[in-house]
Write a structure and sequence with these properties.
The protein is an all-alpha fold and 176 residues long. The chain is built from four helices and no strands. The termini are far apart.
C-alpha cells in the first residue's frame, strides 16, 4: 500500500467515525426533545383540564343564578377544553408531532398565519423590552449632544481672560 492509499484509508476511517458520532448526537438530541415534549405536553394537559373544571364550576354557578343559555355555552367550552387537556395528557410526543405535521400539510395557510402572528408578537415583545434597556442605559450614561450615538466630546474649562491690571495712580499730564 502506498502512502497515498494509506492516507485515503485513514481519511475514510476518520470520516466514518465522525459520521457515526454525529448520528449518535442527533439521536440523543432527538430523544431529549421528545422527552421535553412529553413532559411539557402532560403539564399543559393538566393545566387545560384544570381550566375545564373551572369552566364547569362557572356553568354550575350560572345555573344556580337561573342563566341557562350562558351555562350551556360554558358547558360546551368545558367539554372542548377537557378534550384538548386529555389529548395533551394521554398522547406522547410521536403522536403530537405527527398530528402537527399533518395539520401543517392540510392547512399550510394556517401555519403561515400562525407564523405571522407569532413573529409579530415576538417583534412587539422585543421592541417593548428594548425600550426598557435603552431607558436604563440613558439613566446610567447621560446623552451627549442630544443623540445616543454621538461620541463624548471632552469639554475644556473656560478660562477667564487675563487683563492687565489697571494703573493705581493716574498718569501725569504734561504742563502747558
Amino acid at each position: 500500500m502506498t502512502d497515498v492509499e494509506q492516507a485515503q484509508a485513514k481519511a475514510q476511517e476518520v470520516a466514518g467515525e465522525a459520521q457515526e458520532k454525529a448520528k449518535e448526537a442527533a439521536a440523543k438530541a432527538e430523544e431529549g426533545i421528545r422527552g421535553q415534549i412529553d413532559q411539557r405536553s402532560t403539564q399543559a394537559g393538566e393545566r387545560v383540564s384544570a381550566t375545564a373544571r373551572d369552566l364547569r364550576s362557572v356553568s354550575e354557578e350560572l345555573r344556580k343564578q337561573g342563566k341557562e343559555a350562558p351555562a350551556k355555552l360554558a358547558d360546551k367550552a368545558a367539554d372542548r377544553t377537557e378534550k384538548v387537556g386529555s389529548y395533551l395528557t394521554d398522547n406522547g410526543s410521536a403522536r403530537i408531532l405527527r398530528d402537527l405535521e399533518d395539520f401543517g400539510r392540510q392547512r399550510p395557510w394556517a401555519v403561515l398565519a400562525g407564523g405571522l402572528v407569532l413573529g409579530a408578537a415576538a417583534a412587539r415583545f422585543l421592541r417593548a423590552s428594548a425600550r426598557g434597556r435603552y431607558q436604563d442605559r440613558a439613566v446610567s450614561r447621560p446623552q451627549t449632544l442630544g443623540t445616543e450615538s454621538a461620541p463624548a466630546v471632552p469639554q475644556r474649562p473656560v478660562e477667564p481672560a487675563i487683563s492687565s491690571p489697571a494703573p493705581a495712580t493716574p498718569a501725569p499730564t504734561a504742563a502747558p
